[in-house]
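Q: Hi! First time doing this. I have a protein sequence and I read that you can turn it into a structure. Is that right? Here it is:
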Amino acid sequence: MNPIDWLIHRRLEAFEAQWHYPMDYARALLAASRRGFWRFSKLMALSSHREGVPKAAWHAAKLVAIRAEDCGPCTQLIIDMARADGVSDALLRTVLAGDYWALHAIDADAADAVRFATAWLARAPVLDEARDEVRRRFGDAGLASLALAMSAARMYPMVKTALGHGQACQRVRVGADELVLAPE
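A: Yes, that's right. Below is the predicted 3D structure, encoded as structure tokens:
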């Protein structure tokens, strides 16, 4: 194994150890196409861009977006990353339950981000209204951050599934609670 591939494998192992998340699909991509892997790795910077949006709102929108593509390990990863970033378990459980009125009572910013993400996924008639509210609340930079985060979040499970590494729905954990998720 050449030194660059060795370093990449070490980084993938470290990510797996930190997040308890299998990176087999990334190894398969690297084995199939190093150039493709490098291009795909740039998605990490895109998916981590957050400007003008509170952490809870940003993570909530990503969680809604990823649920459209995954109800397994990728969803768990977003939950774990949100928790590590200080997002409350109550907020995450409420987003997963789809109880947006309760979410509004917990965090109005997150509720508006979730409303926007949900409308965006469905191309719902309220999308323009939800986008305008996000822009009013977070500004153009916040809207752009949500758009990038939501789009990038969906790409991981899409690539993973296309490469044959997608997994069936599973239970996810939010703190001490185990939740059964059905496909969106």
